[in-house]
Amino acid sequence: MDKSKQTNLKTLAKELNLSISTVSKALRDSYEIGQETKNKVKALADKLNYEPNPFASSLRRKQSKTIAVIIPEISNNFFSLAIDGIQVIAQEMGYHVLTYLTHEALVNEISTINHLRNGRVDGVLISICSENGNNSHLSVLDEIDIPVVFFDRVYEASSFAKVTTDDYESGFKATEHLIEAKCKRIAFLFASKHLSITNKRMNGYINALEKNNIPFDPRLVVECNNDNDQSLQIVKDFLLSDNRPDAIFASIEKLAIATYHVCREINIRIPQDLKVISFSNLRTASLLAPPLSTITQPAFEIGREAASILFRQIEKRDLKDYPDRVVLKSTLIPRESTFF
Amino acid sequence: MDKSKQTNLKTLAKELNLSISTVSKALRDSYEIGQETKNKVKALADKLNYEPNPFASSLRRKQSKTIAVIIPEISNNFFSLAIDGIQVIAQEMGYHVLTYLTHEALVNEISTINHLRNGRVDGVLISICSENGNNSHLSVLDEIDIPVVFFDRVYEASSFAKVTTDDYESGFKATEHLIEAKCKRIAFLFASKHLSITNKRMNGYINALEKNNIPFDPRLVVECNNDNDQSLQIVKDFLLSDNRPDAIFASIEKLAIATYHVCREINIRIPQDLKVISFSNLRTASLLAPPLSTITQPAFEIGREAASILFRQIEKRDLKDYPDRVVLKSTLIPRESTFF
Lengths: 340, 340
Prior knowledge:
12 strands, 6-stranded parallel β-sheet, homodimer, elongated, alpha/beta, 12 helices, 6-stranded mixed β-sheet
């Protein structure tokens, strides 16, 4: 079928200079839309022989009893714990869970979201990938017109509900913890500048330095990436440079693990030569050599909370009562890697 | 609706004393079924007003382009890597992946499999839970009449394809590795005696002892369970008893982690006082204090292989050509925890 010949919500919206969501609501006779707009939309829909996607409508009526969870990766303690939390609620509610992995690639995130157009799911939980993009594909989620909840890695500009942790406060606390351990040259390691969680954690870091009268040195902010081998090399080059820090604050777990590997390789002693703290849900943090100080996010609870909000929206209970934003607290657990 | 009043394939099969699969094939006019049987089945179906499940049939025709993956847990490095492998193939093939977690509970496994009756998926990948059961619920998978592949934790009696690792050989090698490190009292820790992988690993352990003329002592075979706190206590009681071993071979990763925690608590030095080796996909194995010797399963490859076989069956390519059983090799990686 020639797609360009098909009339869909997008065609109607473009023609009428309205949002897709308005067109969709007008066709469903929503009380939110004025009669004049409804008449205009319906007239054009008739003229262009608009047919709603039958599979989508059928499932919209019957409910698919399925939700989608879109996450960057699964071999990651944070996300596997969050999924555990989501599954507990889904099982209670009698829903199936479709899990999609984007592997941090925008192209996969786009194709996954486009897949969902066909009405296969009643709701979406999403933690966005770290690759740069203009986020325009996320507007498809508005268009599909089903409940969506962002968790952890959220798209701040979106109107959907968001469940996060106190990333700014945790970034601030982790940095102050290192300052209390007499560190002067504290580095901040991150993997993606496109994520709001990265920026919040970094702002916490910068403000904690400022509050403690430690000049901010941009050369101590080190960008790694999602490739483990490349990140190892970046951390190694950094620790071998003249610009060597006396502490590392890793904004994600895998950069702390990279730091440990590099320190072992080039004989930097933790914590004597370098103190390390990291955002992490690693179950073996206390068994590492030395035990790793962590900012531990309540990953299971984030999943549970995001799923609860989604199901309240899907089942339309407490229609006006579900929160737009939930912020859960992370915990700083000091261990030997920051002893002084 | 009163379910007992509904006529389904099971009712017909019971009434006619035929298998559900035969009834299903008869109703679909399969060449595999004789005309007489077809007539009998169709007559009874008419008499009892049998209606095929419309959702199931519609999807059977259209294909749901979805597979189900049923696993015990996800915050486990083995399963999260296996899922990564499955997802790679599913994305290549353009399929969606429904992930179900049984949390090691038979009741969840049964309800998940029953959920799949409605034709929601084109195929199933399953790694069974560790709870005891007579496995009768697994026959539902035969009844649904779609491709199924077991991976890692397989049900040996089933006729479906199975992808596993060389558990017996790995159990044997791990034990010989400890014997070479001069250990005489080697304990075997496990969590579920109902899994064939446990038994294979234990048989490898027993035969390696025998081959090396070390008498098998059943008091050194210690049953733990899936509750972390309970397992910690069992390992602690064991290591504090008169029956203390000089080495531990943990058949699953979480029991090695429990052993490390206990040794730290009661001041047993690894490897001086106790050597430890474990089946494990822990990414931090080399960073632990001390680094943990592991038998590492090719988890990603197991997932990829199981998914490949499933899709070849779903798409009916090479109809007689897909293997019944694939056994992949694990790798023994010696580290400090078994140094002598």
